[in-house]
Amino acid sequence: SQELEQSPQSLIVQEGKNLTINCTSSKTLYGLYWYKQKYGEGLIFLMMLQKGGEEKSHEKITAKLDEKKQQSSLHITASQPSHAGIYLCGADTPGYALNFGKGTSLLVTP
Amino acid sequence: DTAVSQTPKYLVTQMGNDKSIKCEQNLGHDTMYWYKQDSKKFLKIMFSYNNKELIINETVPNRFSPKSPDKAHLNLHINSLELGDSAVYFCASSITLQAGGPGEQFFGPGTRLTVL
Where would I find the beta strands (DSSP E) of chain B? Predict the structure, then answer.
């Protein structure tokens, strides 16, 4: 079965700093999804990547999928307190569901 | 308008009881899911379901059963609740892409189940 390893597990950054979260798969990724979960709430879809080398951006968040389609990174530029939460990467499975990594908890301090 | 809703938001119950969590989506999606998030925030798929197919994660005990009265609803019924069932349960929905894969999944706000 496919395993997704996220790093780091947790991250504390000062407001305005840049940060990167990584997601590494044990198998080739056919669809890689990034979600954000605010504490105590549901998941919010951020981006989906499918092609090797693909890069997508939304506001200050950029996600990339490497050429080999086994690793993805999520980069936040000039972090803000509103970026705080748990970031989860998820991968397609044959049953249409997502197999998620264990998440990266982000705290942004003033 | 809420896209994916779940009720109740909180559920506290005794061991051995039977309980249900309801999920409704108004997005017109044809596939729905139940996920379980444990105390370490690890999110795992329990079931995925569309009109034609129920796919069960083999690690899910058969005390858990999804019930879908129609395309917009997928309820989760749990028999003989155990302490280890305490978790947050999320419902989600998506379209079923022709090329496979769920595309964007829309998640409900979660139901926090506490078994005493």
Answer: 4-7, 10-13, 19-25, 31-37, 43-50, 54-56, 64-70, 73-78, 87-94, 106-107, 111-115
